[in-house]
Amino acid sequence: MKVGLITTTVNTPTVLALYRKFGPDVHFFVAGDYKTPVEAVEFCAQLGNCQFYSPQDQKDLGYASSELIGWNNDSRRNIALLEAVKWGAEIIVSVDDDMIPNHYGFFNYIEMALEQPFSGLCLGESGHWFNPSLLTVPPVRSRGIPIDIDLHINYSVAVDAKIGVMQGIILGIPDADAIAAITARPFIHSATDILRNGFVAVPDCLTVFNSQLTAFRRELAPAFAQFYKWQGRNTDIFASLIMRRLMQSMGLYTYYGPPMGFHARRPRPLLNDLKSEMYGLEHIVEFSEAINFEFDTASSLVEKLEEMYASLNLLVWWHEDNTHAAMAFLEDIETFL
Predict the structure, then answer these.
(1) What's the pTM value of the predicted model, to 2 decimals?
(2) Which residues span the domain enclosing 205?
(3) pLDDT tens digits for 31-55?
(4) Which of 49, 68, 204, 282 is 20 to 30 A from 43, alpha carbon to alpha carbon?
């Protein structure tokens, strides 16, 4: 299958050398930003099969959503996503530029999970929140999981489950919320056997995944768009809830498990992270409820997304410019599907 890796960076993305070693045939799409050093261009060129997009390159592409999503934020990844879909990627792998893959079989794990039906453990309970990071060592609360709600971790089985999205195991600095990062400074040194062996989440439970070490099917790409300008550090969390709602209507599952990556996050001002996450902490439950309605079975995936954004536009705290950017992105990507 054609595999495309997408990322955005304000650094020289040296970690891509290891991804190239593990995936010689994987095509890389790297969206730069105004703060990205010029050395990044030459570095990507030396990797081969790696397309770097400078800010001017991105403007020249003419995407309607490009200026709307803004600059100097993680949403530039959207441009890499559009280019990967235009190229014909059947599997899209999203990673951060500080996520170090730790196994030669990194891409093999991903292709296997998304190509072959999964039979095994299924966790979560319909209609209830589930925290997959309870299964790391030590356990943490994933960014995006509500802080004042009961969590459920019921056990069941899945047989021949078709995977739509897979979230890899993140070691090192976890993708915990800022409250956990400030109070506990967690460092993930291992994963439980449950997580090492992989599991799927109940399709209609409430849970999240991030964009740091994630892979998904091409047909779900329109739902992966992220809008940091209005959502702060909740962009991939909101996108994951949207994707999971769509996957529920498509009979697709979310997988958690191998491959692993080591998150080598640099020191950062955690209070700023907390401020950037407050929007999600305050509204994540209402967001999940606003998109939880029945679709017209004849609707296309893009039409379902348009309906979801229209419903979000009714929320008093939702910025209508976010919806304008999302609709523009859907127009951009629909021409490639």
Answers:
(1) 0.97
(2) 3-334
(3) 999 999 999 999 999 999 999 999 9
(4) 68
